[in-house]
Amino acid sequence: MTNASNSAQSPVPNAGTRVLHRTSTSIPPRAVRGEGIYIFDQNGKSYLDACGGAAVSCLGHSDPDVRAAMHAQIDQIAYAHSGFFSSDAMEELADELVASAPEGINKVYFVSGGSEATEAALKMARQYFLEIGQPDRKYVIARRQSYHGNTLGALSVGGNMWRRKQFEPLLITASHIAPVYQYRDQRDDETPEAYGLRVANELEAAILELGAENVAAFVAEPVVGATAGALAPVPGYFKRVREICDQYGVLLILDEVMCGMGRTGTLHAIEQEGISGDLQTIAKGLGAGYQPIGAVLVSKKINDAIANGSGFFQHGHTYQGHATSCAAALATQRAIKDRNLLANVVKQGENLVAALEAKLGQHPFVGDIRGRGLFRGVELVADRETKEPFDPTLKINAKIKKAAFARGLMAYPMGGTIDGVRGDHVLFAPAFIIDENDVAKIVDLFAGALDDVF
Ligand code: PLP
């Protein structure tokens, strides 16, 4: 619908031009219906949602069980402030999350999304050290090429310099070490294990440089999503990270906002690394987009220190533990379990990577195909031999998004920056319900979009 036709129908001048949060001046189509992995616009055009929005819609759209659970909750009560009331949905969701959490986790702190979860985890880490009498521990170490949210604390620890740049004066101090980026950084004479050890040891060096007595936490995404297109860790990396954190008394905060809740084939991505964090953030797939919700999974160690110290975590948000959000998340998590969808994530994830390799593995501008489960990234390069990224002014990722969308495919294109070098990545994070035919369609449409651009 054009702005002109919109204005003609509406008594409001310039109707349809008031939303600020767009990057483009043109008004996008309106999503009027969703069904499974498809979204339909006002003209009836369908879009295959191959990225779950931003790795959110893990059950697809209009799931009947989630809709029924939300209706039931709203019919009882939609919201009651958590300072006065609990709800069945919140209590049952917390019980189920703790029962399926990595070892050591025994509490859940609910929030409304990923950035709020990062903020809560950072503040909880700080409060933990105050409770145990180590007030100097204030610095946070994170990784370059990472994203932990857009609020000021989350932006401070995020390692995407492009996003941080203009807000730098407002940010808290954080140091950044190398991410695990095998495609670009593993040396030819190095095994994955040796490479993992080398980059993990950068954490030790950073802790020693800051003085261990000053360092509160290390924050990392087990599989990096939005800034680098599904970068998975190498074997042994997180074991060494856990060892270093334990040796120096530094807390490990795992950000599973994007890679968690089944996306990589296990409920938590960190399960595949054989360790657990002291705090772990989750969001996106937790409520599958039916309602905004996030959470911090809290270890007994942290909870005990706060419970036995000042007695409560000094934080809070109006919508934490929102009953309808908890009902949606509970129904989502039960659907994933009851329908055995994690097995499908593994199976279709393998199909997706095989199909991408078969169709695009030799494409002159496809440098790397990577990831885990239904969390797969494609890195595009100007030169496969040298791995030279495209000139950023070409805006390759934006062109690919546009071409794919025109063909009816939603793919998540990103441009990240590593030490000043920009790269173009496309992320695939479809719903856990996809089948072989859907995988083939995604790859065909994406290959068509690449043809349109190159
Ligand atoms: N952490 C990670 C790893 C993310 O990918 C994101 C969002 O993409 C966030 C945090 C922030 O989540 P939100 O956008 O819900 O605030």
Automatic annotation (TrEMBL):
UniProt keyword Transferase, yes or no: yes
Gene3D superfamilies membership: Aspartate Aminotransferase, domain 1 (3.90.1150.10), Type I PLP-dependent aspartate aminotransferase-like (Major domain) (3.40.640.10)
Compositional bias of kind Polar residues: 1-12
Entries under CDD domains matching the protein: OAT_like (cd00610)
Keywords from the named record: Aminotransferase, Pyridoxal phosphate, Transferase
Positions of region (Disordered): 1-26
UniProt key word Kinase: no
GO molecular function, one term: transaminase activity
Recorded family membership: Belongs to the class-III pyridoxal-phosphate-dependent aminotransferase family.
Protein name: Aspartate aminotransferase family protein
